[in-house]
Amino acid sequence: MAALGSWAPAWSVLGVSRLHYTLRTGEITLKSGAGQYALETFRARWHKIIQECLRIRGGQDEPSLYRTPFARRRDAYDYMDMVISHAYALHQGQQARAGR
Q1: Among 7, 39, 46, 67, which one has the highest count of C-beta atoms within 10 angstroms of its own C-beta?
Q2: pTM of the predicted model, to two decimals?
């Protein structure tokens, strides 16, 4: 039920984006910076959930981009699955290049 609230998806989506950024660049960024990175890195398919999470994180009073919290939760789960899979592939490639 907690995932139906606004903060759980925002924390999770921007959190995995932040980890992906660090894995790819070796640097650390704020969650808002990770959201901007995600908008530049991942396909437009994911922009709605990223923008929604940036909206929530920024405390904006604008209405949600989603009609229901169930749709937002589904996109958040799908996005996190995609980012984690992509980060794992990046990690595997880094390991292979390092000869491990």
Answers
A1: 46
A2: 0.88
Rounded Cα–Cα distance for residues 73 and 7 (Å): 11
Map out the domains of the chain as residue ranges.
2-97
Task: Tell me the H-state helices in the chain.
Answer: 7-25, 31-41, 47-57, 69-97
Owner of token pair 């989506």: 13
pLDDT tens digits in sequence order for the chain, 100 residues long? 555 667 889 999 999 999 999 999 999 999 999 999 999 999 999 999 999 999 999 987 889 999 999 999 999 999 999 999 999 998 888 777 777 6
In terms of Cβ atoms closer than 10 Å to its own Cβ (0-12, 13-18, 19+), residue 35 is buried
